[in-house]
Write a structure and sequence with these properties.
heterodimer; A: 348 residues; mainly alpha; ABC transporter involved in vitamin B12 uptake, BtuC; 79% helix; B: 509 residues; alpha/beta; Rossmann fold; six-stranded mixed β-sheet; 17 helices; 24 strands; 27% strand; binds adenosine-5'-triphosphate; binds magnesium ion; nucleotide-binding (chain B); ABC_carbohydrate_import_ATPase (chain B); ABC_transporter-like_CS (chain B)
Chain lengths: 348, 509
């Protein structure tokens, strides 16, 4: 039991370390100084209040998509659709933010709730298809991602605007941005969303560890046969897990819509917040606290990397490779462990 | 001395528990050596050490007199040690041959030479009289056959020493006889065998020597020819064990379970229960005797709501319960000790405490306003653990880490403690030691005396004859005879189970 906990903490730390090492070797190979490179990375993430604010800003949606994927994982589901759920959540939040007029204490909660609902519906569809027809959630969620992307583009162009590439800015009453936080961080885009994300992590912990729902979800995730035998509805729990997972991802989208950007832009590709959430969840061992820590690491990597080309002369492409390597080692160690556990379970 | 394997003064610890404490086992060439001990005594652990799955903290292992370090199962294989686990490790959609060569595939120009492998496997099977079809799919063959595939797997890898961990727990009496023949054939070919079993009769029948373990400590090794069942039991438990269960005559009252003309299909849509009639009254234990595959599983799954019925009725205290959801069935007063404990009985990755409330977690006091009360849950668990003598380091230990027998005891504790109006016990004592069996049988009889109805399904005729007040023989999806245990014996039951006495059918009092 105890050794297991240590294992849980040790594995991600070791894999981050190996990733950093591999990145250093790559930099060396291409003739750059890895120490300079990493100092630049560190400075870019924590060097001054502005960078720190940006790191927190980037951490915010990562926490929420990480939670979304971790939540589904706990029930044995692989929600690749967080990306699409982020998009519909973002769109829904901006929609409410631009079209509704209300005082702040109604406007912000309303926009958040509608965003969560949009994400939940986007999770509900693959959940129902899995529960009723046994269609694999990975396939459906991938398709749902594309539906979300292109539908959102079409809605921005044709419904929210008159053929423009981005929506109007949301009303100030719906904005999570804070002059106080911006002032504190030399005008970074840090916003109040981090509080919402941390609160969501507490909710996730509470649901999973303390409630009947969490007990059932975990039970179904571990052993469907025994869960059915014990009188739980496996189908209902699959749908519920996808709905809650989708709601978290929808909220992640609203962080971008109500906090960072204040609008939504037509996009030709995915934001990757949802996909990065997979790595965050893996690194965080699917636990709430782990996800928060992992999201912080990913936020720091993502923001800090921007500083590597300017301060250490490491070209952008190489930065991407280094970040990808760190993620690769983090994720692969977990996937390997997951597979081992799976096999053990099947064998015993 | 001519020992093939020597395990000397082995010690193996798990967090919070010493599973093996100074145990010595010496295996002579050409013998069948029994390992005997209570549930959780440390038998499987000791064998997993020999097979390289665990590393011992202290002690020494010698193979043919040479000290070895068995770092993992590959090393064990190279040293000629093979293990047949209690829970098989086969890939269902693969064929017998594919499973056997998995991990050591013979290749030719980088391609697997499956034809050659099939020939080799078939030859091996014929040589030891295993009667395995090398080309059959695992999912299509019986449990007994699957076990033989596991045996073949070890032989194919060149094992000289075979470890069997409770091989007979999952077999029918006929299959057990055949397995014993196979073991004799193996010995005749110069192999040596370590056999773990809780069935003392088997030890007397087939083993040469027996090493006894009690609570992790080695008690000693005896020659089977110089001992008897009573002595073995006493050695292992540390006290005298009674084999005949004491009980008063049953005083059955009203009918609790009433099944009429029931039809149930299996997963391949074949009728397995075909017009079955059965009554169980309050205050009696009805034993279902039958050869595996005559509709027992489908019958139980239909009663418990795990399977839809196709026709007929199942009434519990005069209320129809067929095709209700499992939860509704449970709430109307049915308890079920499932035959397959790993599949249905436990969530192995939950702690024992949470497994104890698997059907009741949502009820007061375990949950209020949909929020779990772990204090209550673990209090309940602690009290059941001590009442039923479940040997575990704590209630927070994952079910996976318990020994097989203790997992079973935890399930029985949970089901019996709810004291349901109808308790269905399917193979309740499978894998339990004699002391635990005695205890479980007493518990079942206690429930009966409290006025509960008990339906016992077992392949052990001893158990059926010993515990039941009435025996219903199932054959081809129907109850073909109702007999009383006083007026029958194993031979007659055997004939009835083979369907030889059809005229008694429908004689369903
Ligand atoms: N992986 C593990 N982690 C922690 N404890 C374990 C583990 N495996 C076994 N144990 C503990 O070690 C003890 C011995 O278990 P073992 O499985 O060897 O018993 P056994 O003699 O095979 O019993 P049974 O007859 O019930 O199968 C038990 O108390 C069990 O809880
Ligand atoms: Mg065992």
């Amino acid at each position: 039991m105890n050794s297991n906990k240590w294992f849980n903490i040790l594995v991600p730390i070791i894999s981050v370390f190996i990733g950093i090492l591999a990145g250093a070797i790559i930099m060396l190979g291409f003739g750059y100084n890895p120490i300079q490179g990493y100092v630049a990375l560190f400075n870019g993430a924590f060097g001054d209040p502005y960078f720190f604010g940006e790191t927190i800003r980037q951490t915010t949606p990562y926490i929420l998509t990480g939670l979304a994927i971790a939540f589904a994982f706990r029930t044995g589901l692989f929600n690749i659709g967080a990306e699409g759920q982020v998009i519909v959540g973002w769109l829904a939040a901006v929609w409410i933010g631009t079209t509704v007029e209300a005082p702040m204490i109604i406007h912000i909660p309303l926009a958040l709730i509608v965003a969560a609902l949009a994400g939940a519906i986007w999770g509900f569809i693959p959940g129902v298809l899995k529960a009723r027809l046994g269609v694999h959630e990975v396939i459906v969620t991938i398709m749902m991602n594309y539906i979300a992307l292109y539908s959102a583009n079409a809605i921005i162009r044709n419904v929210l605007t008159n053929n423009a590439d981005k929506t109007e800015m949301i009303a100030p009453s719906a904005s999570l941005a804070s002059e106080w936080l911006e002032g504190l961080t030399y005008f970074s885009r840090m916003h109040y969303g981090i509080l919402i994300a941390l609160f969501a992590a507490m909710i996730m912990w509470f649901i999973i560890e303390r409630t009947n729902i969490g007990y059932e979800l975990k039970s179904v995730g571990y052993n469907q046969h025994a869960s059915k035998y014990a009188g739980m509805s496996v189908k209902r729990n699959i749908v519920l897990a996808m709905v809650i997972s989708g709601a978290f991802a929808g909220l992640a989208g609203s962080m971008e819509g109500l906090g960072t950007y204040g609008n939504m832009t037509v996009s030709s590709g995915f934001s990757n917040i949802g996909f990065d959430g997979i790595a965050v969840a893996l690194l965080g061992a699917n636990s709430a606290i782990g996800v928060v820590l992992a999201a912080f690491l990913f936020g720091a990597l993502k923001v800090g990397a921007l500083n590597m080309p300017t301060q250490a002369g490491v070209p952008n492409e190489l930065v991407d490779i280094i970040i990808a390597l760190i993620i690769f080692f983090v994720a692969s160690s977990y996937i390997i462990r997951w597979i081992i556990l799976r096999f053990k379970k099947e064998g015993k | 001395m001519d020992y093939v394997i020597e395990m000397l003064n082995i010690r193996k610890e798990f967090p919070g528990i010493v599973a093996n404490d100074d145990i010595t086992v010496q295996l002579k060439k050409g013998e069948i050596h029994a390992l005997l001990g209570e549930n959780g005594a440390g038998k499987s652990t000791l064998m997993n050490v020999l097979f390289g799955l665990y590393q011992p903290e202290l002690g020494e292992i010698r193979v043919k007199g040479k000290k070895v370090n068995i770092a993992d199962p590959n090393v064990a294989n190279q040293l000629g040690i093979g293990m047949v686990h209690q829970h098989f490790m086969l890939v269902e959609p693969f064929t017998v041959t594919q499973n056997i060569i998995l991990g050591s595939e013979p290749t030719k120009h980088g391609k697997i030479n499956i034809k050659k492998a099939e020939r080799e496997v078939q030859e091996l099977s014929d040589r030891y009289g295993l009667q395995v079809d090398a080309t059959a799919k695992i999912s299509d063959i019986s449990v007994g056959m699957q076990q033989r595939v596991e045996i073949l797997k070890t032989l194919y890898r060149g094992a000289d020493v075979l470890i069997f961990d409770e091989p007979t727990a999952v077999l029918t009496p006929q299959e057990i006889k055949e397995l014993m023949e196979i073991m004799k054939a193996l010995i005749a070919e110069g192999k040596s065998i370590i056999l773990i079993t809780h069935k003392l009769k088997e030890i007397m029948q087939i083993c040469d020597r027996c090493t006894v373990i009690r609570k992790g400590k080695g008690i000693g090794t005896v020659n089977v020819a110089e001992t008897n069942v009573t002595e073995l039991a006493a050695l292992m438990v540390g006290r005298d064990v009674s084999f005949k269960t004491e009980k008063k005559t049953a005083e059955p009252t009203n009918t609790v379970l009433e099944i009429k003309d029931l039809f149930v299909k299996d997963s391949r849509k074949v009728n397995m229960v075909k017009g079955l009639n059965l009554d169980v009254r309050a205050g009696e234990i009805v034993g279902i005797a039958g050869v595996d595959g005559n509709g027992q599983s489908e019958l139980i799954e239909a009663i418990t709501g795990l399977k839809k019925t196709n026709a007929g009725s199942i009434r519990l205290n005069e209320k129809e319960i067929s095709n209700l959801s499992p939860r509704k069935v449970t709430e109307s007063g049915v308890g079920h000790i499932p035959q397959d404990r790993h599949k249905f009985g436990l969530v192995l990755d939950f702690p024992i405490g949470e497994n104890i409330v698997l059907q009741t977690y949502y009820k007061n006091p375990y949950s209020k306003y949909k929020i779990l009360n772990y204090k209550e849950i673990y209090q309940k668990a602690e009290s059941l653990i001590s009442e039923y003598d479940v040997r575990t380091p704590s209630a927070y230990t994952k079910a996976r880490a318990l020994s097989g027998g203790n997992q079973q005891k935890a399930i029985i504790a949970r089901e019996v403690d709810r004291s349901p109006a109808l308790l269905i016990a399917a193979q309740p004592t499978r894998g339990l030691d004699v002391g635990a069996i005695e205890f479980i049988h007493r518990k079942l009889i206690e429930e009966r005396d409290k006025g509960k109805a008990i339906l016992l399904v077992s392949f052990e005729l001893d158990e059926i004859l010993d515990v039941s007040d009435r025996i219903a023989v199932i054959f081809d999806g129907k109850i073909v005879a109702n007999v009383s245990p006083e007026n029958t014996n194993e031979q007659e039951l055997g004939l009835l189970m083979a369907g030889s006495n059809q005229e008694k059918a429908g004689d369903n009092q």
